[in-house]
Amino acid sequence: MEFLNSLIYFIITIAILVIVHEFGHFFAAKLSGMRVEAFAIGFGQRLFGYNKKLGFTFGSLPKNIDLENYTDYRVCILPLGGYVKVSGMIDESLDKDFLLHEPQPWEFRSKSTRKKLFVLSAGVLMNILLALVIFWGINFTKPSTHLVTTTVGYIPPKSALELAGFQSGDKILYIDGNPVKYWDEILNFIFVKKIGEEINVTVEREGKKIDLQLNSKLLQVDKKSGLSFLPRETKVFVADVISKSRAEQAGLKKNDTILYVNNKEIISSRQLIDIISSSPEKPIEMIIQRGLDTLKIQVTPTKDGKIGILSGVVIYAPVHFERYNFLQAGIKAFQNIGENTVLFFSIIAKVITGKVEFSNAFGGPIRIAQMAAQTADINLLSFINFLALLSLSLAIINILPFPVLDGGHIIIVLLEGILKREISPKVKIVIQNIGFIILLLFMAFVIYSDIMNFK
Fold first, then answer.
1. Are both 160 and 216 inside the same structural domain?
2. Reduced to 3 states, what is the DSSP secondary structure of residue 144?
3. What phi and psi, each to the nearest 5 degrees, are found at residue 267?
4. Is the domain of 117 the same as that of 90?
5. Which of 95, 143, 349, 428 is such that its CA lies 20 to 30 A from the CA of 5?
């Protein structure tokens, strides 16, 4: 069921992004007087499609059919992207039949450099526009929320955080000299902006200021430590109790709040797991809150250190709401575009220099499917926000000056404009072939990385 859920959201996500991106190329080509032979979702063999000349058909179109000025809207077998086939352009299809005749007025190759650049950049512009509209809408309709706390909660033993010197109860004052007052600022600095770097963190402990050095690269290895980095103002509750488990036999119920275990205040699910797993076949004493009642329960973990519950957390720190009017939301949306673009290139640079692991920076179809399903399970706004980030990422990747990508085509057109002559079609095809092979190898590596992370 989980796989099916992920697959459905993956298809929805890819379909939206591809349709938006390729519509940009399609609209620009039509506006520039070019014929668009095909508008495809997916690559490879045509499964089915529609055009005004033949209507709705299954399978491949008849060979050498002339659709004239009609476009074939098709779905292809590999749902990993899509394309728009513009007449007279060497693209992903590597079709070169048009080279047998002189350039026609409706073909890409007969148009001016300005019109060619407009068509090639339109897909990227549409993806940026989609991201901008989504960010704008979210900023306007949903207030930005900030947890007003900088006090550190549970620090797992032998974790990257403990090795850096963090202790539960530390109040974070500065990160690399930047004052912080919200928990989301701390997470953004450590796990996003400064990922892969040595970070100087100033904390207040028992009235004294202490400087700590955190190697955020270690957090990429110690992922559990990062996931359990929560503020002090956290409570743990029982999200579910497994039938016939030790927890059920002891009387634990769904929605119970776990206050103490063996006289230790519980402020993290990771802390609860650590205590339970270290006490196989040894009774542990829990103090829980159920409604207005405080109860004492004794439960004995199994020999593999489990009692049969799923836990969740509630953060009860004060929340600051920041609302934007329509104009402010728009300004913030442009900031979102700028900040995420800078972040994207920053992470690429860190991958190249070895500061960030490849698997932590890039995700393929499996990662996209997982994240699409996870964000959709949270709420619609989370999924739409993920869609905006993915759309922006797609725009940035496509504008890179690499063969097969839009940026590669743009470089060729610019060179032709400077040289005032067309580069040999044979050279273009060789460039496309090399680029396509490299891209396939890269995608294979990304998918392999996805599979290894999935395991």
1. yes
2. strand
3. -130, 15
4. yes
5. 143
